[in-house]
Amino acid sequence: MSERKTGVYLCSGCGIGEAVNVATLEGVAKSEFRMEPKTHACLCGDEGVGMIKADIDAGVNQVIVAACSARVMTDRFAFEPHLTIRADLREKVIWSHPAGDEDTQMLAEDYLRMALSQAPKVTAPEPWVDGDYSQRICVLGGGVTGLTAAKEAAALGHDVLLIERSDRLGGHALGASKRLPHRPPYDSPEPNDVDALVAAVKAESRIVVKMSVTVTKTAGMPGKFAVTLSDGSVEDVGAIVIATGWRPYDATKLGHLGYGASPDVVTNVEFEAMLKAGRPQRKSSGQPVKSVAFVQCAGSRDPNHLPYCSNVCCATSLKQALELIQADPLTNCYVIYEEMRTPGVAEELYRAAQKAGVIFIKGKVKGVGADLTVTVADELVQADIPLQGLDMVVLATGMVPNSTNPDAAAEEYGADLLKGDVDPEAPIKVAGYCGSEPGAHERREQAIPPGGPLLNLQYRQGPHLPVLHDGFADSHYICFPYETRRTGIYTCGPVRRPMDWAEAAEDAQGAVLKAVQAVRSAAAGAALHPRVGDLSFPKINYNQCTKCRRCTVECPFGAIDENAEQYPQVNATRCRRCGTCMGACPVRTISFDNYSVEMLTTQIKSVKIPDEFSGKPRILVIACENDAVPSLDMAGIKRNSWSAHVRVLPVRCLGSVSLLCVSDALSVGYDGVMLMGCKPGDDYQCHFVKGSAMAAERLSKIGETLKSMMLEPERVVQVEASIADADRLPKVIDEFVDRIMGIGFNPFKGF
Amino acid sequence: MTHASPTPTKKYDLNFARWVYENVDGGDRMALCMQCGTCSGSCPVGQQMDYGPRKLFMMIRAGLKEEVLKSNTLWNCVSCYNCVVRCPRKVPVTYILHDLATVAVREGYAEAKESDNSRFAKAFWWSAAKYGRTDERLVTALYYFSFGMGEGYKRGMANMPIAMGMVKTKRMHLGMPHKCKNTGELKKILAKAAEIEARSHAGGAGNANPAGGTAGHDK
Amino acid sequence: MTKKIVSYYPGCSSQASAVHLDTSLRAVMPKLGVEFKEVQDWNCCGASVGHIAGGHVPMAALSGRNLANAKTDGTSDFVTPCAACYLNSHYTNEKIRDNAKVRDEVNEALGVAGKSYDGSLNVRHICEVIVNDVGMDAVKAQVKNPLTGLKVAGYIGCQTVRPFARTERGGMWDTYDDPTFLNDFISATGATAVPYTKKTSCCGGSVSVMSPEKTLHLIKDIVGEAQEQGADVIATPCPLCQTNVEMYQTALNQKYGTNFNIPVVFYSQLFAVAFGMDPKKDAALHQHLISADPVLARAK
Questions:
Q1: Is chain A in touch with chain B: ≥3 Cβ pairs within 8 A?
Q2: pLDDT at A163 over 90
Q3: What are A324-328's contacts with CB under 8 Å, separation 24+?
Q4: Which of A215, A364, A522, C249 is most buried by a 10 A CB count?
């Protein structure tokens, strides 16, 4: 890289010039950093941007903009390939603190110092690009989800490898009589159209279908996966879509609901097959079925069986009852339920079933006799009521995700890692909590479906895809539903949550778009969600590495393996650039071109710490840029105010915060440190899944360090912040400042 | 001769529920009841009912015909129509309760026949059919004396101040009852209507009342 | 002002307990441009109990005969001031129009008298006519004697708005739970409508007539809130509400130890006084069990 030439630009617009003394800010840059700042009254306007561009033409190759939040005007202040560093004087200074105030002025000066001080520590990132990248997408599973995924990926111009373990395409849909309605008016069972989908996939020349095979080994990284199949072939693919679907819950465990007591007690899956074969008949007598009880939640939402709701059983029973009534209007159909759950348009099916005369009995089944008498504790009539004269009892059993391969034996290696290397439900212990403390998580045994790994990943962190506590593949339901914790590998359909046919097809489309993004980004060396397009990647200084392996264990995405010499080895396209490895490393050997522990501590130390006689404490808030920083920005937009003694340091993720940053802050005289990030735990909101949990884990060990420094552990806290906390966070900050003032000033001040 | 509703032989025997769906005014929409309880929660006299409308509807499905037709729910309805306009499934609750009351009387349930409403209705209909008009004096007197001479006298005396006030303010007159001019024509029409009514009940299950009647709810 | 001619169905209470509603309406409606043509030889609608003793077809035949008689008058609107008459007539009218089986049955019965009806009239409540056809400006234009300072609790009751206030052909005029028309009427006379949450609570209807012990508590709440709000008078559009809420106040005082003595009048009586008409001949204010003194005091 050529010699660094940094240009510094101050904006006095949006009221900055009126609220703080810009000339003094210029003075800070000149006297403390020997830089020549330029001030403009509207820096983001054409004239201001033109001024910067002219300087770049004249040789400036690093730009520092002290204006508004780094989250706004990003396109105006983007001068690629040069790096832009932002200092926020607007949202976090003049919009949230009183104008013309001495403390506000000091705040603005410190944010400018934090920006200027990091300039020598960062360079514009150069991407990791190496050799050839595959654009082919591998789809695992040939049911409705997988077929749809294959078809959609091909339609986007990608070659597809579709792998099915059985000898037929179609999955569970092959056994379905009809499908749940997915077209207006959504009130009647619709024909099973899976044959058309299978035919469309078979007709597509971009799709290669391999049946009766499973995956035995998967190595590599996005753009460079090598998938070994049970037929011995090795396939190069760029991304993998998991559409392995579900298996029915084992009904032999449902003896309390009569399964096994009579041949006429069947599961919904068995009943569906009977419907497909024609008019259902009693197995015991061969008589046509005229009176049927559907028992909902058979083994579902039951802590002894499946603790969750499978989402489609209610609608499926409605569909099956309607099929019976459509064949014979005088069929008696009873649905025994605790709560009918008919999300979305399934409500129309519910109404249709009511109209057709299906009787809904709210209550719990107390027992099923061999003569098919079902005794219901009827909640609405408030009595135990025996249902007699039934021809058949249908148990609406739930879905078990195929997040493991039922055909393969569970392997010793990695089985523990399947549960996640940091228990997502572990109670978060931190030195002290400000605001509302998180409730203790009720711990439950993780229900992992029996079987071996689906992909047998050759990753340091084990062969499995991490799962959530109910055995579904780990992903964030709302914010990033298809992302697993293995970059470039996406789940869709019932393997990630219970869903019906139409939803699964939609899900497949979403996952395929993610896979396409993965293969295309990998080739460019660019990051995926949530730091989309980031070209930086972790670099390890092997001269200092102690082979402690903390980075390979803590990476939420399993991006770092160990090489033959036990040194960590980064697989760049697996990396999501959160910096959790950087925060984990005890000897600061991991850094990014534009992000490092050194850069953070330099910023921390650049702040002027007044002595205790000034009466002005300094509190460091290390804030996650995903939710905490935007939330503080919104607080500023709403003109919410908080203590001007606080200095906010944005970070990529709390996972990237090394304890060294905290101890450095305390040793230079900050009176308290607050880590502000996303919610950890099994219902995490962390954009890097485990970053904030890792921060909490590390912080739980800081108590001893603080004691050895003769400091109160209450000086360091971690708080949860969500994107909607603009009104709450200022209060949380002020409360913490008050508490620190109660403890007193840091005795290290001035040393 | 009227056609009686079928009696369930076991719990959740659907014969009575299906009969209600087909023969009771608004019964077809009752099938859509989702047991939310908005009706019972909206009822000004729900506290005084044996069962709120929600529970009554579930009891019909459960085949508890006797309990349903003997319950005072049918008699305590004050016809405020709160439940009708609030039902999220547009079940015309008031109409159904009204019609179940006629079923209970028609099928001879003692609790129904001896209810205040049944006595009052009898007196009321007598006046309406005979004179074509309601004569509040005669209806009230007939109603009071339906409980027997002693009780009738007692009730009459208890309400005497009100009656005197009504007379004094000329809201109750003392002469012959008001009536239609052509009471003969009215009698003929009502006789024919009663004949049609009886015919429909004798006609077997189903279709005594028209399907698709939304009982005056929002269209 | 354009004149509107409507068929007028007064209902049985117009002959007895609600004669003052009939009297006052006949006085004020011509001033509002509405001319009544009384339905020929009208009969009882069956109210809310007729079906029990009579059955459905006879019940429908009662309204059917009224509607058939009105149809020969050549008007398009069948207007009634009584809540129960409105409910029964409207319900039967819609059934006759929309349901072939009911239409056939009613016409078979009417046929013995050589009558028939097809459901083509619009059955309307007279308050709806005032809201939609007359309008508040026309009412205000007639006010010569504003009832300034009179505090009125506007009590609507049930069946005037439920279940037909939001239906076609004689509906679409107000809400079920918080109707505003009565307060508009009150304000138009220059009086003050007090805040009143019980405006659509039930007085017990015919159950209050036959079994008051079941429903007196409902009336207690209705009168009680009017008293708490400092109302001088309760105004209502419903004949049975007027009677129930007025005649049971003595019984309430005996049972609950209250001191209720609030007159209950019809909106049409307030109109008559505000229009400067005769308090006795036109407003019929002498026909109250609880003397309507606060209104009488403002009469000219």
A1: yes
A2: yes
A3: A324/A275, A324/A280, A324/A289, A324/A292, A325/A356, A325/A357, A325/A358, A326/A188, A326/A189, A327/A279, A328/A288, A328/A290
A4: A522
| Residue B178 within any structural domain of the chain | yes
**A171/A168 Cα distance (integer angstroms):** 8
What interface predicted TM-score (ipTM) does this complex get? 0.93
What band does B215 get if pLDDT is binned at 50, 70 and 90? very low
pLDDT in tens, A583-610: 999 999 999 999 999 999 999 999 999 9
Number of independent structural domains in chain B: 2
Tell me: the pLDDT tens digits for A644-692? 999 999 999 999 999 999 999 999 999 999 999 998 877 788 999 889 9
Residue contact A388–B10, C-beta within 8 A:
yes
Which chains share 3+ C-beta pairs under 8 angstroms with C? Answer: B
Is B140–C111 a contact, with Cβ atoms under 8 angstroms apart?
A: no
Do B121 and B101 belong to one domain? no
Instruction: Please indicate whether, in this complex, the C-beta atoms of B12 and A355 are within 8 angstroms of each other.
Output: no
- Please give the full DSSP string across A666-719, using - where no structure is assigned: HHTT-SEEEEEE---STT---TTSSHHHHHHHHHTTHHHHHHHTT--GGGEEEE
pLDDT digit string (tens) for A399-456? 999 999 988 877 655 555 555 444 444 444 443 444 445 555 455 555 678 888 999 9
Instruction: Judge whether B6 lies within some domain.
Output: no
Q: Tell me whether residue A543 is exposed, middle or buried, using C-beta atoms within 10 angstroms of its C-beta: 0 to 12, 13 to 18, 19 or more.
A: exposed
Domains of chain A: 1-124 (3.40.50), 137-248+402-410+450-524 (3.50.50.60), 251-397 (3.50.50.60), 539-580 (3.30.70.20)
Amino acid A439: pLDDT: 52
Residue B171 forms contact with C (CB below 8 Å): yes
Answer whether residue B204 shows pLDDT above 90: no
Residues B137 and B184 in one domain: yes
- Note whether B156 contacts C: Cβ–Cβ < 8 A: no
Closest chain C CA to residue B104: C52
Residues B97 and B120 in one domain: no
**Domain at C139-296, CATH class:** alpha beta
B86 at interface of C, judged by CB pairs closer than 8 A: yes
Of B92, B128, B181, the CB nearest to C62: B128
* Nearest CB partner across the interface for C58, out of B45, B194, B217: B194
**How do A291-298 and A392-397 pair as beta strands?**
parallel
Q: What value does the mean pLDDT of chain C take?
A: 96
- What is the DSSP annotation of A115-184? HHHHGGG---------S-----EEEE--SHHHHHHHHHHHHTT--EEEEESSSSSSGGGGG-SEE---ST
Contacts of A597 (CB under 8 A, 6+ apart): A582, A585, A588, A591, A658, A660, A661
Which residues of B make CB contacts under 8 Å with A? 10-12, 14, 17-18, 21, 31-35, 54-55, 58-59, 61-62, 64, 89
Cα A174 to Cα A192: distance, rounded to the nearest angstrom? 8
Joined tokens for residue B38:
């908005």
Q: ω into residue A494 within 30 of 0, thus cis?
A: no
Token output for A734 = 């002020």
* Whole-number pLDDT of residue A95: 98
Residue B103: band (very low, low, confident or very high) from pLDDT cuts 50, 70, 90: very high
C258 shares contact with chain B (CB less than 8 Å) = no
Show which of residues 107-146 on chain B sit within 8 Å of chain C, judged by CB atoms. 116-122, 124-129, 132-137, 140, 143
Which structure tokens are listed for C71? Answer: 């149809």
Query: Shortest Cα distance from B109 to chain C (angstroms)?
Result: 13
Tell me the average pLDDT across A305-325.
96
Determine the residue among C39, C44, C173, C265 to mutate to test chain B binding: the one whose Cβ has the most chain B Cβ atoms within 10 Å. Answer: C44
